[in-house]
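All the exercises in this workshop are built on plain-text protein records. A record pairs a protein's sequence with a compact description of its fold. Backbone structure tokens are a discrete shorthand for how the chain folds in space. Once this layout is familiar, the rest of the handout is easier to follow. As an example, a complete record with its sequence and its structure tokens follows.
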Amino acid sequence: MFKELTDKKKKISVIGLGYVGLPLALVFARKFKVIGFDINEARVELMKKGIDPSKELESEEFEGCDIHFTSNPDDLKEAHFHIVAVPTPVDDAKVPDLKPVLSASKTVGKILKKGDYVVYESTVYPGCTEEDCLPILEELSGLKLGKDFKLGYSPERINPGDKEHTLTKILKIVSGNDEEALEEIADIYGSIIEAGIYKASTIRVAEAAKVIENTQRDINISLMNELSMIFDMMGIDTKEVLEAAGTKWNFLKFVPGLVGGHCIGVDPYYLVHKSRKLGYEPKVILSGRSVNDGMPGHIAKRLVQKLIKRGKSPQESRVLVMGVTFKENVSDIRNSKVADLVRELMQYSINVHMVDPYASPNEFAHEYGLSLLDAPSGDYDAVIVAVNHKEYMDYDMARFKSLMNSDPILMDLKGVFQPATVQQNGLAYWRL
């Protein structure tokens, strides 16, 4: 397979051209013939013009790429190495939503040929590739794994907004249904990944490795969030505590904050789902999730307390929330916990305004039913810097004060400003 792809006698297809699939497709397209498939025709039309709908990639990244963008599944018949990179979210009940990955499996199953490879990159629970996706591939194609086609799993490690740890510079885990599949998949990915390849012993090991990467981070952040609540009640600055503790060589440097996005706040539920099916109720994982999911409510409550302490009625207060994306300097609003914070504030009848230089107002309104302003209108009782976009890092205290009325409050969820500087300028200050 690798040689025929290198000679461009066969093609690679990438199914799902979002934050994961598009960068992968373009990197592969610098060496191989690639078919980039997405069910969203509007997104496909933008990509044909060299525009990344996710606003992560510059137009130059499309140059010199041997790629055909399409929303027609019949075009996938021309490919022999298929990569599935669709999203795997959770539903409102925190249950894994496998519809995208199962739908993609159906699309691939209908065009699968003898000798083809199918590799999944979507984050799933251990066993999903072989137990849920493989039967669909076999049923719709009439082919049998091992005899007619090969299967693999290579977890995505894309970090939106990170210009240092880009796709080719991150070690890539690969796995296959047998030794031949493993070696071929390793060679194909190895041709584009500068950081190297790690060969997992089985597909399930690779699936499990992916799902615990973010579960581990989630638990560590939940500890920091819980500590921040405890220290807040004690009148101790959490950031100062963490800086002091961080002087020890083996202290893990995590910080408190809102945990959203498509990975950390989602992946643990995939492991929880599988664990429950096996009859075990996870304790540590769910405890961490409970703490992190409760942070928007905690922050809203602390702001209300501070407003009341200053003689301000929450029902008559105006609050500005700066930043609604799930992390700094990206347009990604998936699973934004800032939206949850805004809803919590609204539960107290607070008048909340939101701004963000990166988020699409239309997408935010569609996803959360909340409106973004083009610019702040001023006269706010409190300003919450929820996301540390680089534009906000240039704000001085005079600029914040120009947005506020008397006796204002500045809530700094990322802890990027100096308390002394804020307080010297007459602003009440609070951070996690």
About this structure: The chain has two domains: 2-201, 294-431. The mean pLDDT is 94. The CA atoms of residues 69 and 149 lie 25 Å apart.
